[in-house]
Design goal:
single chain; 386 residues; alpha/beta; Rossmann fold; 9-stranded mixed beta sheet; 9 strands; globular
Length: 386
């Protein structure tokens, strides 16, 4: 997950939002504002998934809140194990969605054998076999606002609230933990940060955060200003932030003809197509003037969504893992965040996996994540490498 600023005021292009999901289940009800964050709006059972044998699959729509404090609807896919027992643990796992199209929702991709989702399938199947329930929120929100990390944290927390409200799941008193990698790690980190103020009613046992872009400012400068293989994610995040903050991040107004064409090509795409469309691109190739990189209002949005720059700290134990040689995310930002959390008294256990690239680190860290999560829901003292 990455971000760059493609901003300005010269052109008049409007933000380009995703095509609505054709399934009416995803549409917000007319009385949305009458509901509280986490209230269930609708729920239905989905067909069984070969990826998760024996699990019951439910799609739950719930009320959440966007970055302006307005009510929105969001969705989470909940997997319950065979022979589910009330009170067993709940894991909210935030996949790295890194997409702009509504058909890229987890509830859709699970039925299309998306290779990015399969990276954590073994770990989640182990948890299901041990009786855990797993929630997979669509943490980018109904407008697929890639880059809006605080929004992702709020949706994650409200998805947990909703899961605990569904009577047939028996999760009202279940110990609950969070986990996520890459863009999903960003949503997980924000959920941990925001829980004390946004969802003080929730009791969380801990959060496992892997390969997360803790500072979007430094990531913007690394991926956006010079040609980079992952520029597509940078461009997509500029589009996503404009969707969530149209008055502060007017991305489309800054794009030249090539930029608008690339935006239109990406506007309803999923991760791999976004990467392919933008490979080895640079923001300078797609804007009307490089002066757009100096827009204070837009930079302030990027700062607001950067975990490293958030002054508070989580109130739950943290497990953090990454590769020291990861070329996609700023490692210094992770180290700085861990130090800040440690100084605030948070038990942080850090794992630096072997020097590998970004996605491989997700897999290599999973065997350590699982026992750490198990220890937290059992109430064991949290280990720390602070």
């Amino acid at each position: 997950m990455a971000v760059t600023l493609l901003l300005g005021t010269a052109a008049t292009a409007d933000p380009l939002y995703p095509q609505p999901d054709p399934d009416p289940f995803y549409a917000a009800p007319a009385d949305l504002a009458a509901h509280r964050p986490g209230d269930i709006l609708d729920a239905r059972v989905l067909p069984p998934l070969p990826l998760f044998p024996g699990a019951t699959v439910r799609l739950v729509e719930f009320r959440s809140t966007n970055s302006r404090g307005a009510p929105i609807s969001a969705t989470t896919t909940i997997l319950t194990p065979l022979g589910q027992r009330p009170g067993m643990p709940l894991l909210s796992y935030q996949h790295f969605i890194n997409s702009l199209g509504t058909h890229c929702a987890v509830s859709h991709l699970l039925y299309h054998n998306d290779p990015n989702l399969s990276l954590t399938t073994p770990m989640l199947n182990v948890m299901l076999a041990q009786g855990w329930t797993v929630a997979l929120p669509d943490h980018l929100g109904p407008q697929f606002a890639l880059g809006a990390g605080r929004l992702g944290g709020q949706i994650t927390l409200d998805g947990i609230r909703a899961a605990k409200q569904l009577p047939e799941l028996g999760l009202q008193s279940s110990p609950t933990a969070l986990a996520g990698y890459s863009g999903g790690g960003l949503a997980t980190a924000w959920a941990a940060e925001l829980q004390p103020t946004y969802a003080p009613d929730l009791r969380l046992a801990g959060a496992a955060i892997g390969g997360a872009p803790m500072n979007l400012v430094t990531m913007a400068k690394a991926l956006g200003f010079e040609p980079h293989p992952a520029f597509g994610l940078a461009m997509a995040t500029a589009i996503g932030l404009e969707r969530e903050y149209p008055d502060r991040v007017p991305t489309s107004q800054s794009l030249n003809e090539r930029g608008l064409a690339l935006r239109d090509q990406m506007a309803n795409s999923c991760t791999n197509d976004i990467l392919a469309a933008g490979v080895n691109g640079s923001a300078r190739d797609y804007v009307t003037s490089t002066s757009v990189f100096d827009t204070p209002a837009a930079w302030s949005v990027v700062e607001e969504n950067s975990v490293e720059l958030y002054p508070s700290a989580p109130e739950i134990p943290i497990f953090e893992w990454h590769s020291p040689s990861d070329g996609l995310i700023p490692i210094d930002a992770i180290d700085n965040t861990n130090r800040h959390w440690c100084s605030a008294g948070v038990p942080v256990q850090t794992l630096r996996v072997a020097d590998v690239e970004h996605l491989t680190a997700a897999v290599l860290g999973a065997p350590s994540v699982l026992p750490w999560l198990q220890g937290r829901v059992r109430g064991e003292p949290a280990p720390s490498t602070c």
